[in-house]
Write a structure and sequence with these properties.
7-stranded mixed β-sheet, alpha/beta
Length: 218
């Protein structure tokens, strides 16, 4: 499934700038996802961003920028949980770019989880599923737990603490450097790194906060 709404040449070059696979499989899947997002958004209000050129930069490439950092900070990860996945960001692009990674999204809004599951079906992403519910009631464990503007860092790690597998970590996507949130984190976590994320075509601050539990023996 492809879409003329997304400039696939810019998508391909942006993926290349990130050091990511940019062949037809990936580009067609991401363009197809963007087409679904724009189509469903007319009825279900999945995102405030409605212009295709902004979907490309603010959603597709912004989410894709997480993939190289997964490779860097969690190279052995087999599973990822996207908390407050919304319309599938970053879970859908991550599932496209990392077909060996089992990706789960969770959102408290049923129509958003339903959209992600429909996108998984239409795009043939067998490594992606979404759950409708509240994260504090979720059971299971994941090697990487991520979020994109879900909540404060303290709320994020507190709500998802039982869901981080032994040896796992949190990868929290943020905009500007979250100095106050970092200072407020509880003592039972350690900030492993704060990485500035460069997103092709996006002139806005983006950061990734990498956090690990202090006691990995839980």
């Amino acid at each position: 499934m492809t879409s003329s709404a997304i400039n696939t040449d810019l998508l391909r070059s942006g993926l290349a700038d990130l050091g990511l696979e940019n062949g037809d499989r990936v580009v067609d899947a991401l363009a197809g996802y963007a087409a679904l997002l724009l189509k469903w958004n007319r009825v279900y209000n999945l995102t405030a961003i409605r212009r295709p050129e902004e979907v490309l930069t603010h959603h597709l490439l912004d989410s894709a920028a997480l993939s190289p950092l997964i490779d860097r900070f969690a190279p052995a990860a087999a599973s990822l949980l996207d908390v407050g996945c919304g319309g599938g960001l970053p879970s859908v692009p991550t599932a496209v770019l990392r077909p060996a990674l089992q990706v789960t999204g969770i959102d408290a809004v049923g129509k958003k989880a339903a959209f992600v599951n429909q996108a998984a079906i239409e795009l043939g992403l067998r490594n992606l599923r979404a759950v409708h519910g509240r994260v504090e009631k979720l059971s299971g464990s994941w090697d990487v737990v991520t979020s994109r503007a879900f909540s404060s860092l303290t709320d994020f790690v507190t709500l998802t603490r039982p869901l981080v597998a032994p040896g796992g970590r949190w990868l929290a996507m943020k905009g500007v450097m979250p100095e106050e949130e970092l200072a407020a984190l509880p003592a039972w976590v350690r900030v492993e790194a704060v990485e500035r994320m460069t997103v092709p075509g996006l002139d806005e601050d983006r950061h990734l906060v990498v956090i690990t539990p202090v006691d990995q023996r839980r």
